[in-house]
Every structure is written in C-alpha cells, then in structure tokens.
Design a protein that fits this description.
2 domains, alpha+beta, Thiol Ester Dehydrase, Chain A, about 240 residues
Length: about 240
Amino acid sequence: MSAELTLDTTVAYWDVDRDNLLLLPAVFKFLQEAAIKHADQFDAGTRAMATRGESWMLNRMAAAIHRYPRYEEQVRIVTWSSGVRTFKGYRDFRGYCGDELVLSASSLWLYVNLKTKSLIRVPEKVARSFPSRPGEEFRPELEKLKLAAPAGGSAPACRVSVRYSDFDGNGHVNNTTYFDILQTALARGGLSTRPQTVEMQFLKEISPEVEWVDVHLERRDKAAVFGIGTPEGLFAQGRVA
C-alpha cells in the first residue's frame, strides 16, 4: 500500500454553481473522499467506525484554491499523511487538472471514540503501519494557526437552516457542510463566493437537535473572518480571502 493515494474524479453537474464552476463544499468533498479511501487502506477510516466505534474528526483545514475547476473537468486529488501522533493525524492534499495545480491544503484530524465523544490514542498497530511523508506540508504551521471569529455583536448574522441531508454516519453535520453554510453566507453578505484561501477551525459538532446556525462575517481589508454558531456557542470559526 502506498504512502499516498490518488483519487481521479470528474466535476459533475451537481458539484457546480450557476456559473458551472466547482462549489466550495464540493472542493472539500473531494478531499474528504480521498482521505477516507486512504485511511481505509490502513483500518483507520470508515471500517474503524464500524468495527471499533472510532473515527477521525476534522479539527483544522487550510486550503489555497488556485482555480475553481469547471463542469466536466477531470480532477486528480493526491493525498498523504504527514504524521500520526497520539490522538492527532496530519494530512496534506494537492489537486490537479491535468498538470495544473489547482488546490493545495493541509489538515489536522483528531481521533475520537464515537460513543463517549472523547479523544483517544490512535491504536499502536494503526499508527505504526500508517506510512507518512513529513516535510511536504502546504501549511506546516497549521496547528499553531490563530483563528478568531468576529467580536460579539460586531458583525451582522446570516441564518442558515440545518437539513437532514447535512448529517453523516458519525451522527453530526459533516465537515463539508460547514463550507456550504459559509458559501451561502458569503453570497448573502455580498462577498466573493469563491475565496482563494480558506482557513477553518472546527470547535464543536452540530448535533441533530440544531435546526439553524448563524454565520457572522466581518470584513478585514481584502479578507473576512467568520464564526458559525448559535447563541449557545460557536461550532467553527476562520478566515477567507
């Protein structure tokens, strides 16, 4: 089994927006699918969820989208682990259309027990067998990246409904849906719906009891910071530019 996995896919019609360009959440669906397929090869993906009740939860993502692919373009996603330490997993991605680099991303994942929702150490056998390629990260400082939501009350809110289809096999809103919610808020706020850089920190899961979230956006020069949450607290925060 290889230290990296390549996912070849095609931009489908349901993946694009009104301009036939790849939707923001579709970008991260491609990355998620590649990550799961690679982790499954080492008994650390969806199979671990079924057999051991354990799973990876995305904690941080930083991506540069150099170009949004168009409808029917062929996309190649390459992913690899840059390391597994205790309960943390580090993963990088590159996306290509032909020889053109269209996406670069780094991510940090936390390993959890799905029943107790607590962090647990990655099984030694899995950590030992999982090949890694450290030193090639797009954002090597990702874990130390400081992300903050807009100050309370300083930014108008965009309310977005949470739908049945937003939930995944882990029983919470899938991480790719956060980017769907964000893109909806960007459109309603008159900001670019195709940011070139996206940085997001996931703080807390959105459970089935949540019916809507508020997205607060605050412009800062050519960028914007955001917070996704309810009056009870934030689920995610980050920055787009």
